[in-house]
Amino acid sequence: MPHFTKRLKTDFGNPEFFFNRVFTVAGVRYHVSVHDEKRKVHFFNMNGKTGEWHIVTDVKTPEWIMNLQSQLSDAIIEHKPFDPS
Fold first, then answer.
1. Residue 24 phi/psi, 5° resolution?
2. What pLDDT sits at residue 83?
3. End-to-end alpha-carbon separation of the chain, Å?
4. Sign of the torsion angle spanned by Cα atoms 51, 34, 11, 13
5. Which residue, among 16, 26, 27, 28, has the nearest Cα to 80 in the 3D structure?
6. Helix, strand, coil shares of the chain as percentages rounded to 5?
7. Least CB-packed of 42, 51, 54, 77 within 10 Å?
């Protein structure tokens, strides 16, 4: 399972996002985790469609993470060019 990390700027600092590439029956996804300023861990998945990666989750993802969706997608694309297979 290839993985990488990326720090992104937020209102409370530069948390480190942990990306793990996962192969599923629905295709490749990235399982992403990050700690917030209170050290609470947030988990979500990102699914690749039309050359971009989007957050997909069954639980409410904090707004500050949703606001970083484009930067998270860019981090995945920088690490590995788009390949949804």
1. -125, 170
2. 53
3. 14
4. negative
5. 28
6. 20, 45, 35
7. 51
Q: Which amino acid is at 74?
A: D
Q: Are 30 and 76 in contact (CB under 8 A)?
A: yes
pTM for the full predicted model: 0.86
Question: Do 65 and 55 form a contact (C-beta atoms < 8 A)?
Answer: yes
Over residues 25-84, the pLDDT tens digits come to 988 899 999 999 899 999 999 999 778 999 998 888 999 999 999 999 999 999 875 555
pLDDT at 1 over 70: no
Residue-range domain boundaries for the chain: 3-79
